[in-house]
Amino acid sequence: MTATDTRDAVLRQVDELEGELVDFCQRLIRLPTVNPPGENYLECAELIGRELETCGFSIEYLTAEARPEHSEPFPRTNVIGRLPGRSEHPALHVNGHFDVVPAGDGWTRDPFGGEIEDGILYGRGSADMKAGLAAALYAAEAIRRAGITLDVPIEVSGTVDEESGGLAGAAYLAECGRITADNTAYAIIPEPFSPHRVCIGHRGVYWAKITATGHIAHGSMPWLGTNAIDSMGPLLEALRTELQPAIAERLTNMPVVPEDARRGSLNINAIAGGQYGQPTQTPCVADHCELIIDRRYLLEEGFDATRAEILELIDRVAGEDERRRFDVEDMLIVHPTQAPDGSPLVAALEESIEHVTSRPAEIVASPGTYDQKHFARIGGVEHCVAYGPGTLEEAHQPDEHCAVSDIVDSAKVMALTLLKLGTG
Ligand SMILES: [Zn+2]
Fold first, then answer.
1. Both 221 and 353 in a single domain?
2. How many domains does the chain have?
3. What is the pLDDT of residues 277-298, one digit of tens each?
4. Which domain holds residue 273?
5. Ligand 1 centre from 128 Cα, in Å?
């Protein structure tokens, strides 16, 4: 067979498999894997495992037993399937998280019904990202049913907890040595970026808790104390009038969408002080106040400078007053990640997208983060991107949905990409 014949044969197989692919998406949606707390993870890992086995994969279950998120009622079980290639070369890996966020209010359909109407599949996880996981599995199956064995193994994994950071999921697979640069050549994460878009990376995240400490005194004689809530006032003002405008001046070269997200941001996530939330209040000057900030930073800014800029501002606000003190605790650090320039993975996806959708591929970067950080930063798998059906705008929304035609197109693109990267 010529390369064109092989490609056509694989695309034909995806079309023939559409019914099975959609049925598998529906079965995944009908198993509510709501996180938190992580419902039905074991059942879902086993559902994916059985489907992988039917498609010729050998299966491994990896449970993150040592992680604090893991418990007997809510086990953190991940599944990896491996379809052998002609050689033992590093694998082509496709990873999808199977946890979903809670349904929330405002649905006009059953969030876990997996209904299809007018070619649209509805349900929590239809876009983010059970359809993507199913499309990946059936992309591999289309290659197998076309009678083709790739030069390298294909791996498909289903992992937990992406919505809450992925530490017991993708991060665990990387930490325990199951996903490394030695055994994994390329990784695709089918997050919902639309069938014509490749997402090459994401910005950085820095969450910090800033605690102001004051001096307690009687509330009727506040001048004898130092009010920590009052101390937080000038800090909030400085964040708003100094730091936020400075951040807004800087533009990344990463193709982040939407366009406004090409600048970093600083969001005040929470504030609490004094006797807030206590059943009874007594007359005291507030001696503590806590602020949580969510800073999204650019690849070009880097983490060290991002953190230093905040510390410097806090120092300035604290000034000479010894009774006004601020402490900073790092809560979450996610470094920005981007696939290397000229990555063969991106090139193969671009070519496949153009072939399947007859439109040029769009290269984007994500405003938020996803499991790419764990593949790249812990596993060392630099050639990792996100590509999958559904749109980001649909993720986590009521009446979340995904067009069946998008699922099929994405499966075709992934199949051609695997074919291209996996044959000489
Ligand atoms: Zn997702």
1. no
2. 2
3. 999 999 999 999 999 999 999 9
4. 204-334
5. 4
